[in-house]
Amino acid sequence: MSDEQCLIAADRSRRVLIHAVVLLDAWLETMRGPDGYGGPVVHWWQDNFLYTGVGLDWRYEGIILGYLNLYRNTGDERWLDKARRAGDDLVRGQLPSGNFRASCFEANPDTGGTPHEAACDRALIALAQVLRERVDPAWEVYAGAARRNLEGYILRFLWNDEGRFFQNTPADPTFVPNKAATTAEALMAWADLTGDGEVMERYVFPTLDRIIVAQVRSPGHPLDGAIDQGVMGRKGMGRFFPFYIARCIPALMEGYERSGRVAYRDAARAATAFLLRYRRPDGSFPQIVYRSGRVGETPRWVAGAGDILRAMERMRRDGMEMNTETTLAWLLRGQHPHGGIATARGFSGRNGSHPPSHPDFRDLLPVCGWADKAFRYLTGRVCRGDVLPEVGPLPEVEMNGEFRGVRCLYRETPRWIEVRGENGWRYRWTKGAPWAEVNGRVWPGIL
Question: What are the Cα distances from residue 40, in Å, to 19, 365, 369?
């Protein structure tokens, strides 16, 4: 292309990205209830369609950090106001124990979720840092909430002092690298805010060392660089999820920058090379790769690809050459006209090797705790000088799909989400309500 054509294409790409950001922000507004961001949840592990109240879980990580990105990159106070509003949700929802209520995402409204509470801490600390730079005394409120959770729950109940690692839960001694990486990021942010360097030597570096131990290092082997999903004692599970591996990379690189320990950068580079080796031509990533070499292709995350892109961009800044545009295009193709971003592709075929011919309701449904990952990444690409316009009323969206083998119609408006099945089964969530309705009745629990 000529220089002029390149400039035109670059301008078009920026306009597409900015449009995606403002639409996603508008959709997030529709998902707010009296206490914060709610809605049904879908996940590889399990779904939760009935509890739809606020979830003080990892959705707040991407939402708060995304709004802080916009504030830093544009200087517009409205984005800082939205970050503070989300921080206030966490402060109001904190329990006397230091935990956050409904912090278990797909298992909400349970509390004590990992890595969810650490993700909330990471966001609160970032908000506190920005406010302290503005000499705004409110920074101490958000820092205090993060401190109560870190000291009252994460360090008190999850740190295994004998093994020098963070457990999955107080009752489950499994070491889960991606969850531990999120905790390490929160503690590194805490060290920056407070000047407490002891947390680095006592908690962060042992955590990163443990992540490296969970990594496959076998040059030339397809699994080289993969990080195991979990380790019990010395035995790994033999399950490697590209999405979760990506969530380990920023912590490893941050550890490298702080310590100069090349092993952390080498691990991050090998993990990134693993991701690129398994990336599909359309820019997506398989759900899971097993020790045997078998690949579970579906569901392939769409909105969640934002976290993979964030890891890739971090490594590109470190000098790794890679193309991120195919994965960015994969993510953007998943945005609905109402601004929400589809969760995945292929939930119906998760036990097969190919995506199904008809989209599953769980694929179509945007979920705050996945869309936030796209939001965080996309807002990070907004540049100074970019103008983010207001958007008009969001349209209603209707799409045909299936749910548990039954054809259905998914319909979403700014006021509700509804699913109609061919056999009369009905699901409806009035946005802001803590529970959804099935066949006209409110059913507390997990569907």
Answer: 25, 9, 10
